[in-house]
Design brief:
CATH superfamily of the largest domain: 2,3-Dihydroxybiphenyl 1,2-Dioxygenase, domain 1
Distance between the termini: 35 Å
Number of strands: 18
CATH class of the largest domain: Alpha Beta
Strand order of the largest sheet: 17-10-11-12-9-13-16-15-14-18
Radius of gyration: 18 Å
Strand content: 35-45%
Number of helices: 5
CATH architecture of the largest domain: Roll
Structural class: alpha+beta
Length: 298
Amino acid sequence: MTVASLGYVGLSMQDPSAWNEYGNNILGLMTAADSSAERVLLRMDDHPYRLFVEHGDEDKLISTGWEFADSGAFEAVIANMQAAGVDVHRGDAEGAALRCVTEYAVTVDPSGNPVEVYYGRTNLQDDFVSPLGVDSFVTGDMGMGHVVIPAPNQDQTHEFYKTAMGFGDSDELILPPPAEGAPEMRILFMHAANQRHHSLGLFNFPSPTGIVHMIFEVPDIDTVGACLDRANAADVPMMASLGRHENDNALSFYMFGPGGIGVEYGCEGKLIDYKNYQATKSTLGDIWGHDYAPPVTE
């Protein structure tokens, strides 16, 4: 195991300001002081940002930033990728400064998803204050949260994250086909070197935005409920009703953020002993709730 956590996520948006408003007024994130109209930086803890939104021609995922503990782990993952024939490129000093990291490298996984690896987050700050009074988000050593990404080449992509990146398996969830004649839905959940049940999910269906969803985890159900009220009052389109997952126990709801980006907002995610965890197999997605439509596959 080498990968430590999900450090940041990057989006391309035709209108980045929409995420500034949504992040502040619905999620309770704080806009970083060095944000601009072309590059919105959103904070949820002491990191300089956890989510960046850049102006672009499409609304889509452009970055998943995976943190490694130190330079040794960082060099090891690059060596692993090179040994596996993965085309990986080291970033320059300017790019590192933009990301607020010591060093980084970029590549794509076997399903074409963008991947960034780094170590040494810089410019940490202790002045996070949610504009909505959200006390905190569940981050720290467990990182930003988790992302679920499309992986049509699922087995090859799973091998990449496990062998080259150092993820461990958490759960294999298999659900019935979303429509007659369609394949069954399979999500492979993977954990990093922290207590979060999963930091990464690989879904065997495509997604038009390049991301199925990302989570913002908070400490309690009252904070989740308050966000649900705000989202409903603002007519934010819903992706799934309030419910509790079976495999990681998370109590959450799903909505569509600007640009059709899937967002989960929840609490009470399961904590695991990642060094000794035994992966599970599931056929039940939810204990209750989470009434939602499957993602668009065209």
